[in-house]
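Field reference: sequence -> structure
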Amino acid sequence: MSHELRTPLNSILGYARLLNGYMKLPDRGKIDHYSKEIISAGENLLGLVTQILNYAEMETYSVDPELERIELAAGIRACLAAMKTRAAEAIIILRFEANAEDHSAVWADENCLHQIITTFLSNGIKYNRSGGSVTVRIERRAKIRMRITVQDTGDGIPKGRMASLFEPFNRLGRESSNVSGIGLGLAIARHLVNSLGGKLGVNSEIGEGSTFWVDLPEATPGEVKKQSFVDGNAAARSLGNLVLCVEDNRANMQFA
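Structure field:
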C-alpha cells in the first residue's frame, strides 16, 4: 500500500517541478504532457486514498443505507457511462444485455449499488485483455430476488486463491504488476452488499474469465419510485448553477 500511494505522489511532485521549470519556455507540447501526467497521477492517488478512507470508515462505523426502489436498467447504464472512458483507454468493450422493456427494480441504496457495480466493472476492465469485453446482465433468480452479473474475458482466478479474493489489501499476487490498486474494492463491495441484505459471489475459470454477481431484494411493482442515480449536472442546473464551496487550503482555493 505504501508503494501504491508513494508512486503517484512522486509523479505529481516530479512533473510539477518539471512543469515549473518550463513555464518560462514556449514549449507548449511539454507543458501539456507534464500537466496530463500530473492530472493522471493525482486522480489515481485520490482514488486510492478514497478507498482507504471508505474502508476505514466502514471498519469504525456500520453502514446505514437509505433503501429506495431503484430500476436496475437505469442504474446499470449510469455505471457503464461512468466507466466508458476507462474502458476505451484499455480497449475493452462494455456490453449490457437487457430487454428494453425490462423495468425490474430492487430495494437498495443508490450510492452503495453504484459503488458495487462500478467496482465489478473496474476490475473487469483492469484485469482483462486488450480487445476483451465486460458484459452486464440482469436475471431473476427467485420470486423476490434479482441478480446482477458482470462477466469479463480476463485470465480468470485460480481456485486456490478464491477464498482470499475478498480479503482487504490482498491482490492475489498482482502487487508487482503494472495494474494500479491496493486490493480494497471487493472487500468494500462485500461489506456494502451485506448492508443491503444481499448476497455476493463469483464464478471463474482460468483462461475463460470471471463472473461476479450480486443478489438483491426485488422491489414489487406499484411502489412509489424515487429518482435513481441522480444526474449531478441536472441538480446543479435546477439550482441555477450555484455552488457553495468552503475551502481553507490556499492551493485549493485557486481552483474554486
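Note: The first helix runs from residue 2 to 22.
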